[in-house]
Amino acid sequence: MKRKAKTMGATHSSGLASSHSVSSAAGPSASLSQRDSFQLFSVPLEILEEIFQNLPPHQVVCVCRLVCHQWWEVADSESLWRERCRREGYRLRDASRIPKDWRLFYFLCKKRRNLLKNPKGDQKMKNWQILENGGDNWKVEGVMVPHPNETVQQNFVTSYGMCKKSQLIDLAVEGYNPLFMDHFQPDIKVSDWYAPRWDCGSEYQICVELLNQRKKPVQTFAPETVYFEQWNDHQWTQMTHVFQNYGTGVRFIRFTHGGKDTQFWAGWYGIRITDSCVEISPAMDT
């Protein structure tokens, strides 16, 4: 049974367009060998789609898509990428919100990862730039109370003077080129976990900036400082934010956080931070 695959708004490349026009021009007067060569790739769409399901995704886009009009149609079809998402477990958080582009949704899910290095302190202070190292400086310790993520066993601890650290993420180095960022402007999700000691007051700060090529802010997330009184429940709290519709020009992300204790106690009685995350993700994710 034959069907017509739905395309996803893609345009023909010049190579594809010329190949299609030659095929149309062949007509009855074309030689048998010419007509046979054009029919060589004429495979039922269902079979072709199944073949594409078993090829590396980048090969489907960069190689198969350029072979002929039929292959281009299948490589761009909604059904191909929707089924690929299903098979690889990339599901919608809200089933009522359907992606406009299933191929984009697939690749964003596949590339999705934490762009921050050493977010849990497993490698001490590696990959972090220390901006302020007050009191007895930053320290890495085991968690005092269990974290919601059982894999988190370490946290960064602040002291009685302000402690701040930062990471600069180069989006191009991480595989998100300027054309992609400017055209699609995918969601940029930020999260951070923090907790006080139960026996000492403390404060927590975070600032995340989307920067242009000159490292000037395009958009900033900088909520008010969070304060904890002494004798609190010392439980973990997650700070989250999603950057959307931030415009063109975003090339870097600067993530900065920190804090201190508010009672000036020697040692490490300030805010505890761990499991920080910055990720590029589809608007409708798992």
Fold and architecture overview:
With 286 residues, this protein is an alpha+beta fold. Helix content is 25%, strand content 26%. The chain has 8 helices and 11 strands. Strands 1, 4, 6, 7, 8 and 10 form a 6-stranded antiparallel sheet that branches. Strand 6 and strand 7 form a beta hairpin. Helix 3 packs parallel to helix 6 and helix 6 packs parallel to helix 7. The longest helix has 13 residues. The protein is elongated. The two termini are 34 Å apart. 29% of the residues are buried.
How would the blueprint of this fold be written?
Elements: H1 14-26, H2 32-39, H3 45-53, H4 57-62, H5 69-75, H6 78-88, H7 102-111, E1 129-133, E2 139-142, E3 154-157, E4 163-170, H8 178-184, E5 187-195, E6 202-211, E7 217-221, E8 226-228, E9 237-243, E10 252-261, E11 272-281
Antiparallel strand pairs: 1-4, 2-3, 3-11, 4-10, 5-9, 5-11, 6-7, 6-8, 6-10
Helix pairs in contact: 3-5, 3-6, 6-7
